[in-house]
Structures are given as C-alpha cells and as structure tokens.
C-alpha cells in the first residue's frame, strides 16, 4: 500500500510524503500481541525504503457489523475473507416444537429444505446491509471499499467443503463417536452468497456504487506450494510433497481446522478433533479425485456515493 501511495504521489507531483494510518480489526477475543511484535521490524523496512516513518499501524477490536471508527474518518476499507461469517446462526432453523429443520447438516446441503436456505439468506441480507450502513457512516465521500470473500458460483451451487465437514460428522454419529442430537443442534454461522444476491443488497442499501465485481476459483490445495512446511523442503522433496495424497490431506484438513476448530470444540468438545479432521482430509482427497474441491471467491470494489448522487436501479 505504501508503494502505491508513493507512485500516486509521484504522478500527482506531491513532494511531501503522505502519512498512512492503518487500523487492523478483529473480534475482541483476538490477541493482537503477535502482530504488534512484528511492527518494529516492519517499520524499519519502511524506513529503509522510504527514508521516513510514514506508515502507522494500530488495532480496533470489535465486530465489523457495528460502528468501529469516527464519522467520515476512513478513506479505504479492505475486508479479506471475513464477510461470509454471519453475526449469528440464522433464526428459524428449529420448529416451535424443537425439531431441527436442517437435521444431519451443519450448513446448507443438498438435503436441506428451502426454508433453511431462506433463513441463511435472510440473515446474510441483514448482516451485509448492516456492514455497508456502518461503513458509510465512517467513510469519507467517495471512499473506497474492497471486499474479498467466499461465494457460490450460481444459485444452485453450495460450498462442498462445509458440506463435506457435515458428512464427516455424520459418519462419526453412525459409529457412535458423536451424539446425533448434538449434530442436529449445530449449524455454522456462515453464508456464501451468489453475485446476484450481493448486487441486490448493494443496490437496495444504496450507499455504495459497485465499480467492479469478479469471481474466481481456488483449489483446496492451491496454496500448498507456499505453505511454510513445504517451503522448508528441497526442490525434489517439495515436488514429492505436492503430489503426495497424505500431505495434501494434512494440508487441506489443517486449513479447515484453523478456521473451524474453535467453534466445533465449543459444541462437540476437543476430544474428537484429531479424528474428525483426519477423516475430513481423507474425504477431501476423494472429492478432488472426482473433479471437485474448488472454492468459489468474489472480489468487489465499491465507492461511497456522493450524498447528492442518486441511486439508479440496474
């Protein structure tokens, strides 16, 4: 970011170096100390390149579904792989009599009734609208919003890596390793929207103009070559690791575990985690052999509308 600012300053003939204030955001339970310990070396690197300490980093803990910053104080907001997380598990997944409508699933699956999808979509619409409303209060006029998160490729496409986790838990229920009632009561607070749904919410909320939207796919093992464990290997060892099924299974399961373990432990307990993700890794490899194993992603660029600018329906 600092290099981009430098380049634009040169193009605009701005002689005085611009200061950049960056705030990192996460929930209040996150420990920022690890990041803060890296800042001194980062600042030294910036000073060597630019000659001045012109980038300043802080943290703002809290949910991005609430206000985080003073009014009209932010020029750029970047959210990376966060907005598919909902503020809560959708309401309406259990009947008044206590029957789970999404029985045997932990997310929207092929066996989920339409009411489950509607509940998830309703919660996402509420949350994403709230996110946009909060940011428009905080951002300056014509401020930029850049968002990247998981999506679905079309209206009928689910996210099979979450569905696969549910299938793995079902196997453990059949074997008596997980209580069926526990599984039936568990639903992930996540939603992968379609691009159509996103455009509709942005248009209805009205504070931002969509400048660019594109989708892309990543294989479940797409970043395996840059994994720290792989990088430490020699070239010949690295090639062997990348084509080894056990290594792929470990890598894929490790990524899922890093993201989902805390919420799973809270509901199912810690004792099943090693077995669960070992099974998940093996199933993931079989999925990939059948041509599956892709994550659909969306990246969007939006700009805050001028207060006098009218919203023209698409």
TrEMBL record:
GO biological process: methylation
Keyword ATP-binding included in the entry's annotation: no
One Pfam family of this chain: Methyltransf_7
Protein's name in the database: 3,7-dimethylxanthine N-methyltransferase-like isoform X2
PANTHER family: S-ADENOSYL-L-METHIONINE:CARBOXYL METHYLTRANSFERASE FAMILY PROTEIN (PTHR31009)
Keyword annotations: Magnesium, Metal-binding, Methyltransferase, Transferase
Domain of life, per lineage: Eukaryota
Alphabetical list of SUPFAM superfamilies matching this protein: S-adenosyl-L-methionine-dependent methyltransferases (SSF53335)
Family statement: Belongs to the methyltransferase superfamily. Type-7 methyltransferase family.
MF-aspect GO terms: metal ion binding; methyltransferase activity
Species the sequence originates in: Nicotiana tabacum (Common tobacco)
Keyword Magnesium (UniProt): yes
């Amino acid at each position: 970011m600092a290099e981009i600012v430098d380049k634009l300053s040169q193009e605009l003939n701005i002689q005085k170096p611009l200061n950049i204030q960056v705030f990192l955001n996460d929930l209040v339970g996150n420990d920022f100390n690890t990041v803060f310990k890296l800042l001194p070396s980062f600042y030294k690197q910036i000073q060597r390149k630019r000659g001045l300490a012109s980038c300043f980093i802080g943290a703002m803990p809290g949910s991005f579904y609430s206000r985080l910053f003073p009014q009209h104080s932010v020029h750029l907001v970047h959210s990376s792989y966060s907005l598919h997380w909902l503020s809560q598990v959708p309401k309406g997944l259990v009947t008044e009599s206590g029957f789970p409508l999404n029985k045997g699933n932990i997310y929207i699956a092929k066996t989920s009734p339409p009411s489950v999808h509607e509940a998830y979509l309703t919660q996402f619409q509420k949350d994403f609208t709230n996110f946009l409303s909060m940011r428009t209060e905080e951002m300056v006029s014509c401020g930029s919003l850049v968002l990247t998160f998981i999506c679905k490729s079309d209206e009928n496409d689910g996210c099979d890596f979450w569905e696969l986790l549910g299938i793995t838990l079902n196997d453990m229920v059949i074997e008596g390793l997980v209580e069926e009632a526990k599984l039936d009561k568990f639903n992930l607070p996540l939603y992968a929207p379609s691009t159509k749904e996103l455009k509709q919410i942005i248009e209805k909320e009205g504070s931002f103009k969509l400048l660019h939207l594109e989708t892309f796919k990543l294989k479940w093992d797409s970043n395996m070559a840059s994994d720290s464990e792989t990088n430490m290997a020699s070239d010949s060892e690295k090639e062997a690791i990348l084509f080894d099924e056990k290594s792929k299974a470990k890598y894929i399961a490790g990524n899922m575990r890093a993201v989902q373990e805390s919420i799973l432990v809270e509901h199912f307990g810690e004792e099943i985690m090693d077995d669960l993700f070992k099974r998940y890794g093996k199933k993931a490899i079989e999925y990939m052999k059948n041509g599956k194993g892709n994550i659909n992603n969306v990246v969007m660029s939006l700009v805050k509308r001028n207060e006098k600018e009218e919203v023209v329906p698409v």
